[in-house]
Specification:
Four Helix Bundle (Hemerythrin (Met), subunit A), single chain, elongated, mainly alpha
Length: 142
């Protein structure tokens, strides 16, 4: 494996995070708190590994792939990338607050913030995979 494989690894980690988030949601709706906790910890851990790989890639590989072709799709790609990037920054403190409240067993506070954290985190995970697919697989850039 080389550094140039990291975008695919990052997409896989985002996919895995989304799967853990979805399972965690299902488990809490069914009242299985232990399975919910385990899935959310796995989603958090997967996201931390993603962040380490993402930062390693961008700190090491100095070239940036720009979305150029097809020109008609570029505004759609940039819109998705913009929302993904902004929410990826916003979600970090929300995730930390949500986990902190669960750890303190403040489950009412946890539920209040998780109503915002979960969909934003899911969006960031899914759009991260989408950005990878658009940039490297569906419309590979010249």
């Amino acid at each position: 494996m080389t550094l140039h494989d990291l975008p695919a690894v990052n997409a896989a980690l985002n996919s895995l995070s989304a799967v853990f988030l979805a399972l965690g949601f299902i488990f809490i709706k069914r009242g299985n708190k232990i399975a919910h906790r385990n899935c959310m910890i796995a989603a958090f851990t997967t996201s931390i590994v993603f962040l380490a790989c993402y930062l390693t890639y961008h700190a090491t590989v100095k070239t940036v792939t720009h979305f150029v072709e097809p020109a008609w799709f570029r505004p759609i790609y940039l819109g998705i990338l913009l929302t993904h990037t902004v929410l990826a920054v916003v979600i970090v403190p929300l995730i930390l607050m949500t986990l902190y409240r669960a750890r303190r067993q403040d489950f009412e506070g946890h539920k209040r913030i998780a109503r915002w954290t979960w969909p934003l985190w899911m969006y960031v995970s899914v759009t991260g995979v989408g950005v990878y697919l658009m940039l490297y697989r569906i419309f590979p850039q010249p």
